[in-house]
Specification:
heterodimer, A: 176 residues, alpha+beta, 4 strands, 52% helix, B: 143 residues, Beta-Lactamase
């Protein structure tokens, strides 16, 4: 009963969505664009988790749910699992993906990689803009993770860390 | 013969309530569904390890009244499905397969981008699928 769509189409739609929200719809208000994209991701995650937990027994604790996100949920979305999971056992989890699929199309400028630790703002400007542009593409997956976890009964806040592309870490902080 | 099916959200808000009897006792069926919510909460919070696996989705027979049997099913997202049947000798396997198909229909209904989570399910396709599942259940137990 399911129809299939090429993966590149999904990638294209997501890239275009980020571009449309950041440049056209909320061009002057980037924080609103970020919140809208994250809200879209929240709804998608909410509905997807309903579908992917259909045949499974219930989770006994938060760690089980996070492990489900790392393994089965991520494999359904990206055909691979999260490469590394770290936790401080006090409500914070770091999910690291060494090659996040939706960032593979973003080029990493090699010249800005030789960061000489100069505090000159004019030099760090292009690097900041690149980092900013990359972070706009991460609101959607953060929203997906947040929506999935809150539908499982775990309210949380999710942020992304892109200090070394193409690896990407998602930091999940469970709200007590 | 299934009298009534209900979908209740995780804050015990009703998402879908449909009775299949011709008689006018819809209110009594709603009352039975409401009471069974308490039983579900009790089962989930005080698990009887000898009787029920801790994390199974199918909760089994919740409580038998004089003319009905009530079955429950709890999903991972804390959504409860409740089925009230007048058949006094239903097979466990039939009920499980009923809930499996019902869960599939529910997931499809909730994946609708126009559905607002927390509001009632207003999809006619869902209602149609549910009556189809109920009919096959009735045929299965009579056959």
């Amino acid at each position: 009963m399911g129809r299939e769509v090429a993966e590149s189409c999904v990638d294209g739609v997501i890239i275009e969505m980020v571009s449309a929200y950041c440049k056209r719809f909320y061009g002057t208000k980037p924080e609103l664009a970020a919140r809208r994209i994250e809200a879209i991701g929240y709804q998608v995650g909410h509905q997807l988790i309903e579908r992917y937990t259909m045949e499974r027994p219930r989770f006994s604790d938060h760690l089980e749910a996070i492990k489900f996100i790392c393994k089965d949920f991520w494999s359904e979305l990206f055909k691979k699992q999260i490469d590394n999971l770290k936790t401080n056992h006090r409500g914070t989890f770091v999910l690291q993906d060494n090659r996040f699929q939706w960032l593979t199309h973003i080029s990493i400028d090699p010249s800005s990689d030789n960061s000489e630790a100069t505090e000159d703002p004019s030099v760090s400007m292009p690097e900041n803009k690149a980092a900013e542009a990359t972070s706009t593409h991460l609101y959607f997956p953060c929203g997906i993770i947040r929506g999935a976890l809150s539908n499982l009964g775990i309210p949380c806040a999710v942020s992304a860390d892109i200090s070394n592309l193409p690896a990407c870490s998602f930091v999940v902080r469970v709200k007590a | 013969m299934i009298a009534c099916v209900a979908v209740v959200g995780h804050q015990n808000n009703p998402l879908y309530l449909q009775s299949f009897t011709e008689a006018d006792d819809a209110l009594k069926l709603h009352h039975i569904v409401h009471c069974s919510l308490d039983v579900i909460d009790e089962r989930v919070n005080n698990p009887k390890r000898s009787v029920l696996t801790l994390n199974e989705t199918f909760l089994g027979l919740l409580f038998p009244t004089e003319s009905y049997k009530v079955f429950g099913y709890l999903t991972n997202t804390k959504v409860k499905f409740i089925m009230v049947t007048t058949d006094l000798d239903v097979k466990d396997a039939d009920v499980r397969s009923f809930f499996r198909r019902f869960h599939a229909a529910y997931v499809d209904a909730v994946s609708n981008p126009f559905h607002v989570p927390g509001k009632k399910i207003a999809s006619r396709i869902f209602a149609g699928r549910v009556s189809g599942i109920v009919k096959t259940f009735a045929l299965g137990t009579n056959g």
